[in-house]
Amino acid sequence: MSEVGASRASWNTYRDVEVSFKVNGKEVRVRVKPYERLLDVLRNKLGLLSVKEGCGRGECGSCVVIMNGKLIPTCLTLAVRAEGSEILTLEGIAPEGKLHAIQKALLDTYSMQCGFCFPGVIMASKYLLDKNPDPTEDEIRDALDGNICRCGSYLRFIKAVKLASKYIKEGKVFFDESEVLR
Amino acid sequence: MSTIPEYYKIVEEVFEKYKDKEFLFVGRHTQRWDSIEKIKGRALFTADFTRLYSNLVYVHSVRTKYAHARIKSIDVSEASKYPGVLRVITAKDIPGINDVGYVIPDQPLIADRKVRYIGDIVALVVAENPLVAREAGELISVEYEPLPVITNPLDVVDLMTLKEKPHTLVHDERGSDILVHYKIRRGDIEKAMREADVKVEGVYKTPFQEHAYMEPEASIAIPEPDGSVTVIASTQCPFDVRKAVAKVLGLTLNKVRIVVPAVGGGFGGKEDVANEVAAKAALAAVLTGRPALAVHTREESIIGHSKRHPMIAWYRHAAKKDGTLVAVEANVVMDGGAYASLGPFVPWRATVHATGPYKVQSARVDVVRVYTNNVYAGAFRGFGNPQVIFAVERQMDLLAEELGMDPVELRLKNILRVGDETVHGQKLTEEHGVGLEEAVMKAVEASNWFELRRRYSEITGPVRKGIGIALFYHGNSIGVEGADYSSVTLIINRDGSVSIRTGLTEFGQGSTWGLALIAAEILGVPPSYFKIENPDTSATPDAGPTVASRATVMGGAATVVAAYKLRKRLNEVASHILGCDPDDVVIRAPDVYCSSDPSRRTRWADVVEQSFWLGVPLQEFGYYRAPRALWDEETGQGAPYITYTFGAIVADVDVDIETGLVKVNKIFTAYDIGKVINRMGAELNAEGGAIQALGYALMEEIIHDKEGRVSNPNLSTYYVPTIKDVPEIIPLWVEAKYRKGPLGAKGFGEPSFNAVAAAIANAVAHAIRANVTELPITPERVYMLLKNKQKT
Question: What CATH number is given to the structural domain containing A115?
């Protein structure tokens, strides 16, 4: 028998804390528990369901977002840490009805399998291209090394990031969704 | 019942009609119907529905502390009183039958009498806050009487005699821990062995492999006003989940509804564990009257769901001087862990394929699957075949070496071609589509085999190079495992768009999109008109499980039947509008015209509208059941599968003999999958299967300690390939068409995994000139191989 649960303060006893930050360009204010993960707050309180939980330990890359210009695993980030920050999730990378060049390139390269890792892969690719608009294959492999895709679309990701880089250099950052499905 | 069903005739008629035609959609690159929702991150996976239910409760599983113990008592009083806890559920609270075994009833949902592995559940705690549920779980007191833990299958059975050894039974209620024993008996094995010129033998081992699909298991159950329950579930087999939930709750099947949203990977792993997870959620929902979420953490997923069966196998191959294979003997032990899961079937597939895609005159094969206290083993892409392929293909290389032949030369001497009999006495004909030789030639040519094999053999120094080949065949669909049927409903809507309803599920593999392409081709309507509905046991027809690479072959055949009948009716309506013969009608939506006079034309939408007003049904149900497979239990003779997918893999590797690290440079995959239906899906499976198998070859292994605990239950200790591990993969295709398949297609999901690890192993053996007998080929194992070689 274990006494661990009985001897420490219960999760029940924590009070809410108010946190304000900007997500996808919009100011938000949410009440959170001090132990709550940013992942759960983005998903359950703000409805940003593109942020996926694959492992909860920062090992798979499914939940990464860009926070203050850095790529972070939201499963290892407490929501209170988001105070005053600017966060970008997949929902915010292209306007309604449009696809970002990375999304377009992933479809052009026929890379879709189950799609669960895609939000993380797209955010990691965006983070890479923001810093390095013309990455080499090795640089792409380094940048996406933290994103596990068990279906194994990795080779397509390399092609897609290169293609997206080309699109962006040509000034084509956004595409109409209707251009893709014919 | 002696008449040939209409659906056979339709599938064959359609094959004949299209076999020489150029396809508009089939075999081409197309964007799936769910592309936009997935690329935008909007596709809803099971756990994403959490937000829809404001009064949701969480179900936490309290798992055993011992891998093998009797349960003397359970006290949940403290946990039940804990603030925030709504309900604690133990075995005695189950209204129906406490069992979630997939094939046989050997697996309690909640352990009552004893625990058999470290993932067994002893109680469920239901609370509004998942952290509170977990906290309360720690207050549950279970009195255990620990039993000896068995983690080595050779403590259960002897490899050479296959006799059960005295031990503390994992399943004492069964009286034996040998679940199944399958056999092949062909020819006079003793005589063949005596008269052979050369023999090679060895013992081969393969590990537990984890599916590691990115979406962990999840279910949300919603209690309905009429006493029924709806479950949103991450599963490959909604109708099997329905059966399991109904059994646990004591409900009739029509009172359980399973809905499958987007699924984040399966690979065979989301067959049986989905039953357990759905049943947990359903139980909590029914007992609390509130929507309930059961979701596994990654660690729970790894310790609590099925794995690829580990294998220990002894093989002996015998051949004549000219390389003709004359006899194969094998004793194969598969570790099934604590429960049967798919265990009655996996060893059967291993047995069928136990001698590889070769002509074997004499064979004696015995395969047993035993219970241990390890995490249970079940279905995983390949289903028993990759394990025996590893052993067989290593043996073939040893034999080639012994005979002084090139490995390709030896294989070509013995491979199955049209007119040959398999080891089961099944005669392969043109009708099956047998493209193995062509696959071998393509892989050999593309990889520059003969040149590199010679050149790599001469390399010295710290980095060695190797090139290896492995072949396989893979029986399509489920064979004699059960009723092999599938079904779809095609619905043309009033605006001309098309809906497909089927119980087959999409979990990344793309096969249901293949159904849309088949229907598009036959109806003459572009794929962009199609939508595939989510599987829903209250709306989509029971199509059998989405397993065994059967969705394209079986579901595709059912789609052919439905599309053929619809097209026939629509041609008649169009003929009525256009005034030409029904056979003269061309549908190329949005246009419809007469082939003999294209100026006589109308619109697809008009044909649909006319059909509606004429009372011509715009919906059609398609059903297909595979011809019965044959198998003699004593001799393994018969015709175990309807047809076979074939393949040849060549791997090119570097081995650093100072660090033991293996780097795969290139993998050439030549597959005969009959007619390629979904080009994108086929290519992605070829790549994805190869990558998963690269992990199996080099790094993946679930390790149990001697107490039966999993030593590496997360993704930082259980390694899967990342983008940095991936070599160049060159997919090559052979299309030896299966005439009774939809447009000539054969299955491909599992075959894409099958022989890649064996090819890598053969390449490593070539590079280091040592006998690789165990997977994964970690740096430590390479080091030991080199060290042992120095000794001898």
Answer: 1.10.150.120
Which tens digit of pLDDT belongs to each residue from B523-560?
999 999 999 999 999 999 999 999 999 999 999 999 99
Sign, CA torsion B735/B554/B498/B222: negative
Residue A159 lies in a domain: yes
Asked whether the bond before B590 is cis by omega within 30 degrees of 0, the reply is yes
pTM above 0.90, yes or no: yes
Checking if the pLDDT of B355 tops 60, the result is: yes
Helix axis angle for B407-414 and B436-447, nearest 10°, is 170
List A27's β-bridge partners, or say none: A22
Q: Report the alpha-carbon distance of residue B754 to residue B557 in Å, rounded.
A: 24
Cα dihedral sign for B677, B680, B686, B688?
negative
Q: Is A8 within a domain?
A: no
Q: Which range of residues forms the domain containing residue A141?
A: 98-179
- Helical ranges in B83-195 per DSSP H: 130-137, 189-195
**Average pLDDT across chain B, whole number:** 97
Please give the C-alpha separations between residue B189 and each of A64, A110, B330, B374, B651, in angstroms, as whole numbers.
59, 50, 11, 35, 33
What DSSP character marks residue A45?
A: I
Which letter does DSSP use for residue B321 in this model? T
Residue A29 falls inside a structural domain: yes
Please indicate, yes or no, whether residues A75 and A147 belong to a single structural domain of this protein. Answer: no
B723 and A182: CB-CB below 8 Å?
A: no
**Cβ density class B479-492: b for 16+ within 10 Å, e for less:** bbbeebbbbbbbbb
- Residues 686 through 715 of chain B touching chain A, CB cutoff 8 Å: 687-692, 714-715
CB B46 within 8 A of CB B219: yes
Cβ separation of B31 and A182 shorter than 8 Å?
yes
A54 vs B contacts (CB less than 8 Å): 214-216, 264, 298
In 10 A of CB B159, how many CB atoms? 15
Question: By the 8 A CB rule, do A157 and B723 touch?
Answer: yes
Strands B311-319 and B307-308: unpaired
How many domains in chain A?
Answer: 2
Whole-angstrom distance, CA of residue B611 vs CA of residue B609: 5
Question: For chain B, what is the radius of gyration of the CA atoms?
Answer: 27
DSSP conformation letters of B426-469: PBP-TTT---HHHHHHHHHHHHTHHHHHHHHHT--SSEEEEEEE
The string of pLDDT tens digits covering residues B417-471 is 999 999 999 999 999 999 999 999 999 999 999 999 999 999 999 999 999 999 9
Of A91, A113, A145, the CB nearest to B688: A113
The 3-state DSSP class for residue B147 equals coil
Identify whether residues A165 and A116 lie together within a single domain: yes
In a domain, residue A4? The reply is: no
Identity of the amino acid at B325: L
What domains can you pick out in chain B, each with its CATH number? 6-30+485-625 (3.30.365.10), 47-147+220-295 (3.90.1170.50), 307-479+631-791 (3.30.365.10)
Cβ pair B761, B394 in contact under 8 A: yes
Do A59 and A82 share a domain, yes or no?
yes
Which CATH number characterizes residue A84's domain? 3.10.20.30
* Beta bridge mates, B650: B469, B668
In the 8-state DSSP scheme, what is residue A82?
A: G
* Mutation for A interface: B214, B664, B676, most A CBs within 10 A: B214
Beta strands across the sheet bearing B463-475 = B463-475, B644-656, B662-672, B728-734
Phi, psi dihedrals of residue B332, rounded to the nearest 5°: -120, 125
How far from the centroid of its chain's Cα atoms is residue B787's Cα?
Answer: 37
Alpha helices in A44-136 (DSSP H): 101-108, 118-131
Q: How many whole angstroms separate alpha carbon A40 and alpha carbon A48?
A: 10
A53 to chain B, closest Cα gap in Å: 7
CB of A61 closer than 8 Å to CB of A121: yes
CB distance B593 to B586 below 8 Å: yes
